[in-house]
Amino acid sequence: xxxxxxxxxxxxxxxxxxxxxxxxxxxxxxxxxxxxxxxxxxxxxxxxxxxxxxxxxxxxxxxxxxxxxxxxxxxxxxxxxxxxxxxxxxxxxxxxxxxxxxxxxxxxxxx
Length: 111
What we know:
The protein is α+β, with helices and mostly antiparallel strands. The protein has 3 helices and 6 strands; from the N terminus they run H-E-E-E-H-E-H-E-E. The two termini are 21 Å apart.
């Protein structure tokens, strides 16, 4: 966590934070999603794990990420493969928690 004290920009801080969260929770993957207010769609700003999600966008209000962003409420899904087969279908559980500032963000972790 000390490495975050030495970053000098937001992108490095977010990427470093995601890495620390994924490692601390012993997760297989994680992503920080950014809501584009013009299109009302989420796309991954940072991600790590076995799947490349860089080309995925999610409509705000749909899927776990979209529901969390739309409602502002955290969600833990015990069997995400059953709940959300469109992506990461091998997923066992998911945690999604909203964060907001001038742009809404959503962090998702695979455990």
